[in-house]
Amino acid sequence: DAGASLLRIGQVARAVNVLGRAMATSLASGARDEVDPATESNYGRALFEAGRYAEAMPLLDHALQMAERSQNAIHIGQVSLFAALAYGQLGDTARGARLIELSARSLGKVLPPEHPLFAQVWVVRARLAFAQGNARAAMAHLQQAFERLGPSSQNAPRRITPLHLRARIELQLGRLDAALASASESVALARAFLGPVEASSHLGLALM
């Protein structure tokens, strides 16, 4: 899906436009509850990353309701994971923690524990712990994420965000050399992954 692909490379503004049109088309051709939860969740995610929180959260909540109704474990796991991150960033870390566990339980029904998707679960756990001021717990969670990602080149794009987060955590812990090393690796991976793409939230965060 074009909107999801744009999100993966960090082109948030374009993703909002593409996914917004997809949502409008779906709503015009059927009832709200017939909209694909993945499309609605991705649109909510794009709006959230664009800072349009008031529009994003109802979409994420509704997408989660539809995913749970479908009983599709992968959909539930993925939608609840981003909802967890969104609520955590808005300060509702308790709700975020509950949604992370929902995601982990759902994914655990159909995927082995070493699957790279669980790395994302640990990254969100790390982000919530860091938001709560617990840098050491955040670092421990990130270690779990890196163990699942491993050195595989096919998982290199998934290492960009956790490396950027690790740099921030190392900086807070006063480990300046380690922070610089993680930040530099994140930038290098972002540039290699994005190629000629210049405007990307992933690269922007890595450079920060």
Describe what this molecule looks like in 3D.
With 208 residues, the chain is mainly α. It has helices spanning 2-8, 12-29, 37-49, 53-70, 73-89, 93-108, 117-131, 135-149, 160-172, 176-194, 201-207. The chain is globular and about 55 Å long.
Count of helical stretches: 11
Order of helices and strands: HHHHHHHHHHH
Main sheet characteristics: none
Strand content: under 5%
Shape: globular
Characteristic key phrases:
mainly alpha, 11 helices, 208 residues
Please give the structural blueprint.
Layout: H1 2-8, H2 12-29, H3 37-49, H4 53-70, H5 73-89, H6 93-108, H7 117-131, H8 135-149, H9 160-172, H10 176-194, H11 201-207
Entry summary:
The chain has 208 residues and is an all-alpha fold.
